[in-house]
Design a protein that fits this description.
Oligomer: heterodimer
Helix content of chain A: 25-40%
CATH class of chain A: Alpha Beta
Number of domains of chain A: 1
Number of strands of chain B: 11
Helix content of chain B: 40-55%
Largest sheet of chain B: 3 strands, antiparallel
Distance between the termini of chain A: 58 Å
Radius of gyration of chain A: 18 Å
CATH topology of chain A: Rossmann fold
Number of helices of chain A: 11
Radius of gyration of chain B: 28 Å
Shape of chain A: globular
Chain lengths: 313, 547
């Protein structure tokens, strides 16, 4: 028999959980696509941690501390999937992939708070074996104790419906994303020849099997549509040495500039909006960020966010 | 084995060679270092001959050394170096397991005419300008390569993929799914027919293929009949028990005359150990002329070993034929070079030899980086498929008639399912005969094997009014970039001077059924321009947050 007291307790606990992980509840809520959010949000603002001028690992620690520490996201016994950008067969200094030190440290942090398993994968653009090895990510992740999983195995992907997608109605999503308890998105910040920027939202193209159809249908809309299915619990952007031209593949290290910045947030649209600024763009220039905001997948109006800026030097 | 140390050595060498080749060709996961296949293939006669004809190199040395070895030791090559020869022994042995009684192969008359038809047919076709084609069809090494690369490799991949689920469930991530690279059914028929033929022949008649069809076997037989060391029967010890016959896979021991046909003996040394009377020896035989030691009781043997004016004439033809072939191929190699120079000066190409391929600026298929030109590539490549097995992206696929009939089975770059990895030079590292010359990464990254054409009328950005630029995303040289278009869109822009023809753009283009960016091969590879850019400027004032 459920007493009133029980009900109140459960409600409070639920409320607390959701406020902790930001607006993760929109994951399950079948919200209608409506007009852009213009009014300031009620309730607690999402936190965007923006750190500068430290080494990658220190900045990551500082950013996570602002968000309540890794233990706010990973509970003992949970399974974690980390999705870096491992798109291209390039060495770490080329800035085409997430830096291995960030991936390695993140894996270690998750395990240190009792994660059952930590898996790392990407549906690479270049040949996956070469890319996993030459990006340095496979070694860093394995050394830290992660399971490095093949992202080029179609049998590991499952077809799912996307009821709230505007143009993307189904997608084959990697089972690790569908089955893991915690999903952490950790791309590198890069220029992109068509979308102008690739950061957190676009990085999730690497969790689906068939991307060609996205390009045929409407790239930006599909990127936003996928988020109506599943949003990462935590987003981290490696902007230490971002690629500012010739992206997303890049040619040489000259395509990158030293920015020594790291961003972290539970709001995937907000973090991408800040990332756009880092590349000298307005958030509205990046069509998928704009669509994400309009679809209430997050906020691109940084003035309505709790931005915590830290310079470590 | 120790009773017969020669056989032990032969088997040990054969096992090593066979295992090495099989690993290199069956390697669906890149286990084998590129050097393995490359080094082993350098022991092979036909790639060596090609190297010799096109102007030297290590392969040429091997060809000469191989000939000298045959002149000293006999056809040890066929026994322990040729993977197809060893493969036939393997088949014969396995087929033996399914027989109740051991198969007895009696002495057989040589197929002298047939052998020479195949050998001289190959030489004639090569002289007619179809050298690569003829060699590709009959070279035993290349045939073995194709059997393993086209049939065994995909089968093993399927087997691997079927256990991936169980391995992953058991926590083993080192076993993973690999794309199964089947060639088209029309092409698979070729190695399948060859495999069937060679399996039947070797199961029923031992080394029949080597002694009737194989041009390398016949050519080495012409040398080995004069070899210094030969298997010989000691007639005083011989009891004509037939034990040696039972052990002979070449059917070349004639007990009635007590002779061994050295042109067909593959120097397996089985008979030496089989003889209880110690009546068979591997003997130095240059002391006496072979004709005086052996009587010629029947016509067949007489034909094979008695010198006669016709045979002398025939041998002379052989020598002059080989010379003519060498001169012809070498001349064509020169011609290719002058031709490519000519192209660079005039910016166009011309037909320089009559083949089915139109040797204009465009090649009907994209040849691998390092091939220099389609014509040179087709002259040199024996379609052994070592590069196809080694290619990590599977972009190298055997051609059907894309190069013309002449280019059947030769590797081409197929961009519908993959593209050439910018930082990879593996095909040139493994190629044994200079068909794909090894290129440094720096050289390869500017080697234009083809050029892309952009068809903006088909491009998604125009037809659909949405962003795409998958082509530009994948382009490693930034030959494809984008420019602002319409309402905050980016439209692809192509600079063909920077394009190396790697096919990444074509592969990535989502337009169906015909892509909006398509690479056409260059019949003579050229040098692309390289875009060198200075350090990119920082997008924001350094040192602070822009928000």
């Amino acid at each position: 028999m459920k007493t009133r007291r029980d009900f109140v307790k459960t409600s409070l606990a639920l409320g607390a959980t959701f406020s902790l992980v930001g607006n993760l509840n929109s994951l399950f809520a079948a919200e209608p696509v409506t007009t852009p959010t213009t009014s300031a949000p009620t309730g607690p603002k999402s936190v965007l941690a923006a750190i500068r001028d430290g080494d990658r690992v220190t900045m990551l620690d500082k950013a996570l501390a602002e968000l309540g520490g890794i233990q706010a996201f990973v509970k003992p016994g949970q399974t974690v999937v980390i999705k870096p950008n491992i798109g291209w067969n390039a060495s770490p200094e080329r800035g085409a992939n997430t830096h291995p030190s960030i991936v390695g440290h993140l894996v270690a942090l998750c395990l240190s708070v009792g994660a059952k398993t930590v898996s790392v994968f990407d549906n690479t653009c270049d040949q996956w074996r070469e890319t996993y090895v030459n990006s340095g990510i496979e070694k860093a992740a394995k050394d830290a104790g992660a399971i490095v999983v093949n992202g080029k195995d179609e049998t590991l992907y499952r077809e799912v419906e996307i009821p709230n997608g505007v143009k993307l109605k189904t997608a084959k999503v990697h089972s690790l994303i569908l089955d893991s308890d915690v999903f952490i998105n950790v791309p590198v910040l890069k220029h992109h020849q068509s979308t102008l920027m690739t950061a957190c939202m676009k990085n999730l193209m690497g969790i689906v099997w068939e991307r060609g159809v996205w390009h045929r249908v409407d790239l930006h809309q599909c990127i936003a549509d996928l988020l109506t299915l599943h949003k990462p619990a935590l987003n981290i952007i490696d902007a230490y040495h971002p690629m500012v031209r010739n992206g997303p593949r890049g040619k040489t290290v000259e395509d990158c500039v030293e920015m020594r910045t790291l961003l972290a947030s539970t709001d995937i649209v907000a973090i991408d909006a800040a990332a756009a600024k880092l590349l000298g763009r307005n958030p509205t220039d990046i069509t998928h960020v704009k669509i994400g905001h309009e679809m209430k997948l997050g906020r691109m109006d940084l003035e309505n966010l709790d931005v915590r800026r830290h310079k470590l030097a | 084995m120790l009773r017969n140390p020669l056989k032990f050595a032969r088997v040990a060498l054969a096992v090593f060679v066979f295992a090495g080749f099989t690993l290199a060709f069956v390697d669906f996961r890149g286990f084998a270092p590129p050097k393995l296949g490359h080094a082993l293939a350098h022991t092979q006669y036909v790639p060596g001959l090609v190297s010799l004809l096109v102007g030297g190199g290590a392969g040429a040395v091997i060809f000469v050394v191989g000939t000298v070895i045959a002149l000293v030791l006999g056809r040890i090559y066929c026994s322990a170096i040729c993977p197809l020869g060893i493969f036939q022994d393997v088949i014969a042995r396995i087929s033996g397991w399914f027989r109740k009684k051991k198969k007895f192969l009696p002495y057989a008359k040589p197929f002298t005419k047939l052998r020479h038809v195949f050998l001289w047919g190959t030489v004639a076709v090569a002289l007619a300008g179809w050298g690569g084609f003829a060699l590709a069809l009959l070279d035993p090494y290349s045939n073995y390569g194709r059997i393993v690369s086209m049939l065994a490799r995909p089968l093993l991949t399927v087997a691997n993929n079927s256990i991936v689920v169980f391995a992953n469930a058991a926590g083993i991530q080192s076993i993973y799914r690999v794309d199964t690279a089947w060639a088209s059914a029309g092409l698979l028929i070729l190695p399948a027919i060859f495999l069937t033929a060679i399996a039947v022949m070797s199961a029923l008649r031992g080394r029949l293929y080597c002694n009737s069809i194989c041009p390398v076997g016949t050519a080495l037989g012409l040398v080995s009949r004069f070899s210094a060391l030969r298997i010989a029967i000691d007639k005083t010890a011989c009891t004509k028990c037939g034990d040696c016959l039972r052990s002979c896979k070449a059917q070349c021991i004639d007990l009635r005359t007590g002779t061994v046909d050295a042109s067909r003996c593959v120097a397996c040394y089985n008979c030496i150990g089989a003889c209880d009377e110690q009546g068979i020896h591997y003997r130095f035989s240059w002391k006496k002329s072979p004709t005086t030691t052996t009587p010629a009781p029947d016509l067949a043997t007489a034909k094979a070993i008695t010198p006669n004016p016709q045979r002398r004439e025939f041998l002379a033809t052989l020598a002059s034929g080989a010379l003519a072939g060498a001169t012809s191929l070498a001349a064509r190699a020169d011609d290719d070079e002058t031709n490519s120079e000519h192209n660079q000066h005039c910016g166009h190409s011309r037909r320089h030899k009559p083949t089915l391929v139109i040797k204009g600026e465009d090649s009907p298929a994209v040849s691998p980086p390092g091939a220099a030109s389609t014509a040179q590539f087709l002259d040199r490549c024996t379609a052994c498929h070592l590069c196809i097995s080694a290619c990590p992206t599977h972009v190298l696929q055997p051609a059907l008639f894309e190069y013309g009939l002449e280019g059947l089975l030769r590797p081409k770059l197929e961009y519908s399912k993959s593209y050439c990895l910018f930082e990879c030079t593996r095909c040139g590292e493994v190629c044994p005969d200079g068909a794909i010359t090894p290129l440094s990464i720096e050289k390869k990254s500017v080697t234009q094997i083809g050029v892309a054409d952009l068809y903006l009328g088909q491009c998604v950005v125009r037809t659909n009014g949405t962003d795409c630029a998958a082509c530009s995303e994948h382009c490693p040289t930034k030959a494809v970039t984008t420019r602002p278009f319409g309402d905050n869109l980016r439209l692809p822009v192509l600079d063909q001077n920077l394009c190396i023809g790697c096919g990444a753009c074509e592969y990535a283009c989502p337009v169906k059924p015909v892509k909006a960016i398509i690479v056409t091969g260059r019949s003579t590879h050229a040098q692309a321009q390289k875009l060198v850019e200075k350090q990119a400027p920082a997008p924001n004032p350094v040192g602070d947050f822009p928000f």
